[in-house]
Amino acid sequence: MKPGRLLLLLFIMLIITGCSSSKSTGNEKDVQPALPSISIIADSEQALALFKMEEKNIEKKFGVRLEYHYPDRLNDNLEDFLFASDKTYDIYMLFPAKLPEYVERNMLLPLDTYIQQTEGIEDILPVYRNLYMKFGGHDYGMVYDGDTHLLFYRKDVFEKYNDEYKKTYGKDLTPPKTWKEYDQIAKFLTRDIDGDGKIDLFGTAIFGGDAKRYIWFAERYLSMGGKYFDSKMHPQIQSELGMKALQDLINLNDSGATPPNSMYDWIDLNTAFLHGKLAMVVQWSDTSRFSYDKKNWGSKVQNKVGWTLVPAAAPNNPRGGVWIGRVLGISKQSANPDKAWKIISYITSKEISKKAFLSKDTINDPFRYSHFSIAGKGAFPTEEMNQNFLETVKSSLNNPNADLMIPGGWDYMQALDQNIYLALIHKKTAAEALKQTADEWNNITKKYGQARQAAHYQEWQNLLKEVGNHEIHQ
């Protein structure tokens, strides 16, 4: 190609490129500016499902986009990296038991004024309104997830082996009401169904992974009349009641009635039950609707699951109760707390919160009076099932157990949790594990101050007794 033609071609290309660039620049004027973001940090993607369901509505209604932060798998100790991070979030999704820790670290904005001006606050059940949302006389969280523990069992399995059980024990095989019955039934229903020498169905399983295994011990211990502390914050966990509760749990684990060496977290425990590997399990109430969910959970037990109250040592003692749950709080560092509150108020409102536990895609549980008056099928195949579910949850909220909502409450339970683990794998005896727990609890109490902790503990006990006496009615 001649030099003149080459120069002419280059000149034409420059003109074309220039026109193209000019056109692109002109189009940028038509692009809408990016919406301001509200960032949310949560323990899991599953916990954010309702936000994602309402994302477009929130964007349109409040003129913001939501930004999500969460670990790859449900994380019970989100604070391990959160407290070491310089990143700023607007909304914290917290386990209520951790609320005191966040308040003590001056991370949360008091919500008193916001909540006083919010419609529907009186619709929130006292057990959540007074235990979940408050600390030190102020509101710091808005309840988002109720989280009630129930006992789930395979109706078909109980029916199949009823005659054999009755022949052995002289009574029908029905859902256990005491822990003695629970352990007996768990051992009885552990089966090699196909005769190949391997167990196909285990009687039960517990949460064996870190952080929440303390609940499976505490429900036994508290239902026996056990207390965490006396009036002066001296630990009572190492008492005869504590040792019996832990030894019974160890014996159950050693009996072969639970999957060997299982370190199940919440997802694992649900999966094992929903895939037909367990005859019964204590879990949060959303497992009821997950039993009909093939899409997310691959359930193999549709129409085969029943639910009832968690066992207790005596009929009038606490059964099950409200464990973990979630509240939404606003960071003191948020640049737009008013907008953050509008989103929190919207997502926890009567109308939107109802959508959560009617969906199989969320992990939210009832926490409002109005949630218990929902007619129709709800998340279930029939109206009868929906009403049975709601009535069972209602019953579980009378005289309930609950997480220890005092400064260091999560630390106390994590010390217990780790020592339970050491006992379950026979690194410590039950007595050694609970003695070690008591020693660690004394150190935590010293850190916060004995008199101060005793006052907080008494207040928590009074509140727990008060909310347990509230009848759910409309």
UniProtKB/TrEMBL annotation:
Family designation: Belongs to the bacterial solute-binding protein 1 family.
Keywords associated with the record: Signal, Transport
Keyword tRNA processing: no
Native source species: Neobacillus paridis
Keyword Transport carried by entry: yes
InterPro entries (UniProt xref): Bact_solute-bd_prot1, SBP
Organism domain of life: Bacteria
PANTHER family the UniProt entry points to: ABC TRANSPORTER PERIPLASMIC-BINDING PROTEIN YCJN-RELATED (PTHR43649:SF34), ARABINOSE-BINDING PROTEIN-RELATED (PTHR43649)
Protein name: Sugar ABC transporter substrate-binding protein
Top-level taxonomy: Bacteria, Bacillati, Bacillota, Bacilli, Bacillales
One Pfam family from the record: SBP_bac_1
